[in-house]
Amino acid sequence: MRVAAAAVVLFALGTSTAAGTTTYQSRVNAICRSYTPRLTAAADKMRKARAAGDLHTSAYYLGVILGLSLSEGRQVEATPVPAALKPRMARPLRLLHTADVTLQTVLQRAVAGDAAGFQAGAATLDKLGPSLNAALDAVGLRDCGSNQG
């Protein structure tokens, strides 16, 4: 009888752990999906402005993209991670935090008129992007990873 009860408890724990992971993945993917249309629209407007030679509008939409990306990253970082998923989420969240700190710095440098600092930060983000996307994809957050970028 005790073995049967223990099996039921273990099954329930395993099911709740899987459900917690699935709920987390669904919640975080939904956050990222909500940003995708806005990021895509801003990127399209930036490309059109750049093609038309309108550097002011192009820079404005680049700022919109950076700001949206920072907001999205902070929302993902603020979402509580289930205990069972914490070990797998350590690397993606560390990379995401690095990206968020870099985004904030890049925005501050842009506002300050520090072109060299802005370019250095943008280069860091370019290098970080593929690793971050791969790490997010690996934990089932494709809408935050390769589906978005």
Proportion of beta-strand residues = under 5%
Structural class label:
mainly alpha
> Overall 3D geometry?
globular
Order of helices and strands: HHHH
Low-confidence stretches: 1-16
How far is it from the N-terminal to the C-terminal residue, by CA?
A: 53 Å
Radius of gyration: 20 Å
Count of discrete alpha- or pi-helical segments spanning 4 or more residues: 4
Helix content: over 70%
**Which sheet architecture does the biggest sheet show?**
none
Jot down its keywords.
149 residues, disordered N terminus, 84% helix, globular, mainly alpha
Describe the structure.
The chain has 149 residues and is mainly alpha-helical. It is built from 4 helices and no strands. It has helices at 2-51, 55-78, 86-112, 115-138. α3 runs antiparallel to α4. The chain is globular, with a radius of gyration of 20 Å.
